[in-house]
Amino acid sequence: MKDKIRVAVLGSTGYVGMELVKILSNHSFVDINFLGSETIHGDYLNNIDNSKVYNHLPLLKSNNSFNAEDSDYVFLALPHAVSNKYVKKYFNKINIIDLSADFRLDNIDVYKKNYGNDHVCKEYLNDFIYGLAEINREKILGSKNIAVPGCYPTSILLPLIPLIKNKLVNTENIIIDSKSGYSGAGKKFDINKMKSKIDYNFYNYNTNNHRHIAEIKQELNKHNSENEVKFSFNPHILPNFRGMISTIYCDLNNSIKKIDIINLLQELEKINPFLKYIKNDETLDFFSIQNSNYCKIKVFDHYSEDKLIVVSAIDNLIKGAAGQAVQCFNIAENIEETVSLL
């Protein structure tokens, strides 16, 4: 049996952090030996969130008190512009899996435009592997620094990169319409925006101006050598707590048919344990992916045969964050990819 790998989680009391701790606490090759928080110290996670079981875990301590020499891996479930400060302290001292946006982007100017100027170690940007597991599996294997993708990009890139890479769709006019549960906005989100005494709310926000556009564009263009991928992106917030669905409208390239798309997705399903092609007589909804690490993909007809509608669904807290982080950890350590995720 493989020796236990000592793991620390900083930011363990946020939505993503708690999901991460839950998954890692059931991992047969992991020993969680440090749990950090920015705000809660000297207590146990069981007392913070009694809806989940966190057995035999260490007392919560300040994130700043973590010593990199005590663990083999640190998972940073921290906000954007905060995570990079810890990377500055720990780089080359420990394996780092960062769940913020601080090391997803290759260009510091693009980062500053989207997240502000507060980045203290831009020199490490290119030392992180973009942790989209199904696309970058070989790069992740053995990697010491991994940047976990955002939730919207994960739901979009997993179906779209293979279509672009295999030249099945036109890259000039892609339309992406995404809908997320409100947990994606974090614990500071004002729930009053979603619920009133008599009804639930639903709205789009940051249309074609969302932070994740730069990340989506960067990764799509890496797989398209001919020209820049052009797309519109319209994200929405739903009154559901968790879940994400992205609907992608594509123009098929000449001579490409719907069956070509389906065949590719079914081939990808065979070699990727968390990609699932959903047949048209099966339902694809939030209930089908909640509390799972799956990305499920379904294809719909358009009124025109040279167009296609592709829908993907993920749990934004798991496949869009904590689950994908553990999937990357498993790959990096050459552990069975599905450990603690099925």
Structure, described:
This protein has 342 residues and is an alpha/beta fold. It has two domains: 5-127, NAD(P)-binding Rossmann-like Domain (Rossmann fold, 3-Layer(aba) Sandwich), CATH 3.40.50.720; 152-316, Dihydrodipicolinate Reductase, domain 2 (2-Layer Sandwich), CATH 3.30.360. The protein has nine helices and 14 strands. The protein has helices at residues 15-25, 45-48, 83-90, 108-115, 133-140, 151-165, 212-221, 258-271, 318-332, and strands at 5-10, 30-37, 60-62, 73-76, 95-98, 129-130, 145-147, 174-181, 203-204, 231-238, 244-251, 275-278, 295-301, 307-314. The strands form two sheets. A seven-stranded parallel sheet has the order 3-2-1-4-5-7-6, with helices on both faces. Helix 1 crosses helix 9 (318-332) and helix 6 (151-165) runs parallel beside helix 7 (212-221). It is globular, with a radius of gyration of 20 Å.
Q: At the third CATH level, what is the topology name of the largest domain?
A: Dihydrodipicolinate Reductase, domain 2
Distance between the termini: 20 Å
- Give the beta-strand count: 14
Low-confidence stretches: none
Number of domains: 2
Helix content: 25-40%
CATH architecture of the largest domain: 2-Layer Sandwich
What is the CATH domain class of the largest domain?
A: Alpha Beta
Major pleated sheet: 7 strands, parallel
Radius of gyration: 20 Å
The DSSP helix count reads: 9
Q: What is the 3D shape?
A: globular
Spatial strand sequence of the major β-sheet: 3-2-1-4-5-7-6
Instruction: Tell me, rounded to a whole number, the average pLDDT.
Output: 94
CATH fourth-tier homologous superfamily of the largest domain: Dihydrodipicolinate Reductase, domain 2
